[in-house]
Amino acid sequence: MRGFSSSFPRGSAGIGLLMLRLAVCMQLLSESNCGGAPPWWQATLVTVVALTLALGVLTPAAGALSAVFHVLCLSHASWAHAAPLMIAAMTAIALVLIGPGAYSADARLFGRRRLVLPASAEESDRF
User: Fold this and answer.
1) Could you read off the pLDDT of 55-67 as tens digits, one per residue?
2) How far apart are CA 58 and CA 60, in angstroms?
3) Are 2 and 99 within 8 A, CB to CB?
């Protein structure tokens, strides 16, 4: 995850990223029936990707999968339905580029760590 995002912002930026993740999740769920009723495996895959986006687990990979799904749905969509799919794909790509934020499982798993150094050489011999 280190290469995907440089930091996990907190505060209002973190809340904004949480809202962006939830927006991509809702777009994925609402646009999941591109070209008719999806087969069971496609519905399961969309549900799993949406859940990972909502929780913030492997967010760049889930966002990329969401963007690819929306782009593939463009081949089956009419012109009237193409604009929401393009907006959903661009939103997912923006999430991939920005990162998950501090209020995600990625921040807990791959976020900043605290390194505690011993004060003297004698304390370092104990470990």
Assistant:
1) 989 989 999 999 9
2) 6
3) no
